[in-house]
Structures are given as structure tokens and as C-alpha cells.
């Protein structure tokens, strides 16, 4: 995709340039700021004759914020789901790794189990800008609403495992190069007794284990005959879940610090714990009785190739890849999920520019996008690979601590984690 640029306005941060038209629009900031003005196509949304306005604001070297408004007449509430006249409000944050001096990252705030507003996550990370990222449990009565539904990788540490369903798609970020990989990842986690060689498979990472219904009221959890879960926890999760089962707390060397026939602990720095429910309680107590443990957590990419995870890597979870190799891959299906909603998209251009995109929705001023419409927006912006992140009321973009889009709810929704751009070297 070829995109235009206003060289004079880009020379000072905060400068705004607006171009209104159909055949000629201003760049979405997806190429270096020294490129000349060029014609590009408008968004592939609704009636082809709709007017479109793009306003570009350079934020930092190699970083631009573009606001796109397509259509001018507010939609009638009853027509939001079906109108081809829009309007649509799309906000694009673009980062060119060839020019930008900063780095991409993901952050979950104070602890992994709770939620915070995206603007607060951007601010606490010392970031210039960011968007909401992973799907999360969002169930307050469980006590762990921020628990990611899928991959959570932060500073090279896998805090949440990739989801198994094939439509769950993961976004990997190397903050050293500001490059991204979008694909369905798999994982394998085990703990091994270094003395006896006995091993035990992990079902989850930092996720409340399932308790077999018939065993929930047993006085001795090791008497359960039904299969349960084995889960590893780290201090970043916060206090571990309480309930029936057993918990073994390990020190930084993997040796047993404490073992109890009940769950729920506050882990100290360097500690980790293993929780087991069901008949796995006996197995966990047996494997930890003699010797210390070694924990192995591996990620696998396409063709089951093991990924080398470094401290500069981050990862968040999405649902459905929108474009792959410049082809639209988003399915067109029935059901509420595929209807028009606010959408958050992240992708890359063929030249490696990373774009974070929000499409406001649920309002007469911006009707939102179906999944195929979101894919069409991604392709119009030149994103050869892109993923649909958490949307709906979660769709939020913040710059400098302030919102630059309009979330669909009455207030900014707290979320599990955020994808951010920090305008300083890693």
C-alpha cells in the first residue's frame, strides 16, 4: 500500500493536517515521514461514494495518529446494524520500526488477575499510546476478572497459555525489533522432579483450576477419584485461588517451601506454586515429596516449531485472523459475535509498519464493524497480516493518558491488558 505524507506538517509534533475527499486522502502514517504525498484508496466500507475525512497528527518520530471519518449522516438507531451509509469512525496509531526510536510492549498493570482501564495501563507503563488487547474472563464474581483467555506473554515470561481453539489467534511482539507475528500458537508445560525424574503435565498457567463437582465437599481432597487440573501460579497473578484441592509452594530453586491440603496463598518474590484438584492432588503431593522440581514451558508456532522466547518478547490473545498475506481470512458467519461491534485490530504492513486500529461502534455517529468489515478496513490500511483483538465495550485507544476514540459504554471499561508503545529505546 502506498500512503501519502505532508512533509512540512510532520516536522513538528502535534501538527494536524486534514484532507477531505474520495480519491485523495492523507497518509495514515504507515510509512516514514519523509515520503511525498500520494493517492491511496479509501476504506472499503459501505457505499463507495461516501465522503471520507482523514486527520493526521504526528506524535513522535515514526509514530502517527490518524482519525478517519467515513460518512457524514448519523445513522438511525434501528439501522446501525444494516446501513451502508455509516458513519464510521476509525482511529489508527502507526509505528514505523525503521524510524521510531521507541518500542512496543504489553502490560497488565498491578497484577494479572485484576482489570484496569486502558488509559491507566498506558500511563503506568510510561507509554505514549496504546490500545486494549487480550480477551479476558470479565466475570467479577470469580474474583479474577483480568485472567487472560489465551496467551499472556510479558517480558519473555509466559503468564497465560495459548487457547486451544483454532480460531483463537495469538499476537507475538519482539520489542527489540518492533516486529510482530500473528498465528495460532500451542504450548506444553510440565514439572519434573530433578531427583526421581517423575513428571506431571500442567493444564493451565495462572488460571483457577476446575474442581470436580462430586469432590467439592470432601474433607480430604486427596480422596477425589475424578480428574481435575494441575496449574502453576506466579506472584504476578496476585493471591492464588482458594478452594478444595492441594497447593505446593516452591522457592526460587524449585524446592518445596510449603505444602497444604487447601488452596490459596500469597506468593513472595521468587516463589511459585502448583495447585491440583481431583485425583491429581495425590500425584502432585507424591511428585513433590522428594527432591526439587524443574518447570518447563514451551511455545510452538506454525508447523509445531518451537519458539525461542527472549526477555524482549510479549504476546497477547486475539480471536480470528483478519488478513494473512494480503488475503482476507475473516469468516462471514451468523451470530452476535460476527455482527457490527466496536473492534480493535492490530497488524503490520508489507514493510513492517505496525498499526493499532480502533473502530468505534454501537452509536449513530459510528456504527461499528462486522468481522468481514473489520478485515476490509485492515486491508484498506495495507495490513497484510492482522488480528481481531478484544472489542465491544473494551475497544479503547489512549494517547498521552487521554482517550482518542469513543468507547461504546457510558464509561471506559477496565480490561485485562493493553498493547502499548513506549517512546524510548528498550
Summarize the structure.
The chain has 426 residues and is mainly beta. Helix content is 6%, strand content 34%.
Radius of gyration: 23 Å
- What is the strand content? 25-35%
H/E element sequence = EEEEEHEEEEEEEEEEEEHEEEEEEHEEEE
Roughly how many Å apart are the termini? 29 Å
What structural category do the secondary elements indicate?
mainly beta
Poorly predicted segments: 1-39
Strand line-up across the major sheet: 1-2-3-4-23-22-24-20-21
Work out the helicity level.
under 10%
| Total of helices | 3
The number of domains: 2
Overall residue-averaged pLDDT value:
90
Task: Please state the overall shape, judged from the principal axes of the Cα atoms.
Answer: elongated
Main beta-sheet annotation: 9 strands, antiparallel
Record field, number of beta strands: 27
Structural overview:
The chain is mainly β. It has two domains: 63-185 and 311-426, no CATH class; 189-297, no CATH class. Helices cover 6% and strands 34% of the residues. It has three helices and 27 strands. The protein has helices spanning 118-124, 280-287, 371-380, and strands spanning 17-21, 52-60, 63-70, 88-95, 103-107, 129-132, 152-154, 157-160, 168-174, 179-183, 186-193, 199-201, 204-205, 227-233, 246-250, 256-260, 272-278, 293-300, 313-319, 321-324, 327-328, 343-349, 354-359, 383-389, 397-399, 402-403, 418-422. The strands form six sheets. A nine-stranded antiparallel sheet has the order 1-2-3-4-23-22-24-20-21, covered by helices on one side. The protein has a five-stranded antiparallel sheet with strand order 5-27-6-25-26, with helices on one face. Strands 13-14-17-15-16 form a five-stranded mixed sheet. β7 and β8 (157-160) form a beta hairpin. It starts with 16 loop residues before the first strand and ends with a strand. 49% of the residues are buried.
Amino acid at each position: 500500500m502506498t500512503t501519502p505524507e505532508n512533509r512540512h506538517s510532520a516536522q513538528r509534533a502535534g501538527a494536524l493536517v486534514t484532507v477531505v475527499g474520495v480519491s485523495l486522502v492523507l497518509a495514515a502514517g504507515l510509512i516514514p515521514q519523509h515520503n511525498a504525498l500520494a493517492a491511496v484508496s479509501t476504506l472499503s466500507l459501505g457505499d463507495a461514494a461516501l465522503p471520507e475525512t482523514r486527520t493526521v497528527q504526528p506524535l513522535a518520530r515514526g509514530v502517527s495518529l490518524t482519525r478517519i471519518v467515513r460518512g457524514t449522516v448519523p445513522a438511525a438507531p434501528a439501522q446501525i446494524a444494516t446501513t451502508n451509509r455509516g458513519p464510521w469512525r476509525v482511529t489508527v496509531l502507526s509505528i514505523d520500526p525503521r524510524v521510531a526510536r521507541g518500542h512496543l510492549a504489553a502490560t497488565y498493570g498491578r497484577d494479572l488477575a485484576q482489570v484496569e482501564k486502558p488509559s491507566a495501563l498506558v500511563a503506568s507503563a510510561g507509554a505514549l499510546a496504546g490500545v486494549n488487547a487480550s480477551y479476558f474472563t470479565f466475570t467479577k464474581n470469580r474474583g479474577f476478572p483480568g485472567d487472560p483467555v489465551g496467551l499472556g506473554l510479558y517480558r519473555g515470561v509466559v503468564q497465560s497459555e495459548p487457547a486451544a481453539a483454532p480460531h483463537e489467534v495469538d499476537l507475538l511482539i519482539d520489542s527489540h525489533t518492533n516486529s510482530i507475528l500473528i498465528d495460532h500458537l500451542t504450548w506444553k508445560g510440565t514439572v519434573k522432579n530433578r531427583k526421581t525424574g517423575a513428571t506431571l503435565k500442567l493444564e493451565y498457567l495462572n488460571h483457577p483450576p476446575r474442581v470436580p463437582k462430586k469432590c467439592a465437599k470432601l474433607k480430604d481432597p486427596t480422596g477425589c477419584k475424578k480428574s481435575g487440573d494441575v496449574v502453576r501460579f506466579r506472584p504476578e497473578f496476585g493471591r492464588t485461588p482458594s478452594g478444595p484441592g492441594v497447593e505446593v509452594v516452591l522457592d526460587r530453586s524449585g524446592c518445596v517451601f510449603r505444602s497444604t491440603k487447601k488452596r490459596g496463598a500469597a506468593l513472595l518474590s521468587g516463589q511459585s506454586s502448583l495447585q491440583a484438584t481431583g485425583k491429581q492432588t495425590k500425584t502432585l503431593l507424591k511428585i513433590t515429596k522428594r527432591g526439587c522440581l524443574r518447570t518447563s514451558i514451551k511455545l510452538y508456532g506454525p508447523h509445531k516449531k518451537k519458539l525461542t522466547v527472549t526477555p524482549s518478547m510479549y504476546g497477547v490473545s486475539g480471536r480470528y485472523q483478519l488478513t494473512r498475506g494480503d488475503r482476507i481470512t475473516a469468516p462471514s458467519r451468523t451470530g452476535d459475535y460476527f455482527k457490527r461491534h466496536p473492534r480493535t485490530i492490530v497488524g503490520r504492513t508489507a514493510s513492517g509498519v505496525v498499526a493499532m486500529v480502533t473502530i468505534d461502534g454501537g452509536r449513530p455517529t459510528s456504527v461499528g464493524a462486522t468481522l468481514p468489515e473489520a478485515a476490509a478496513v485492515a486491508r484498506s490500511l495495507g495490513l497484510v497480516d492482522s488480528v481481531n483483538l478484544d472489542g465491544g465495550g473494551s475497544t479503547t485507544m489512549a494517547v498521552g493518558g487521554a482517550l482518542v476514540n469513543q468507547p461504546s459504554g457510558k464509561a471506559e471499561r477496565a480490561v485485562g491488558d493493553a498493547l502499548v508503545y513506549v517512546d524510548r529505546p528498550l
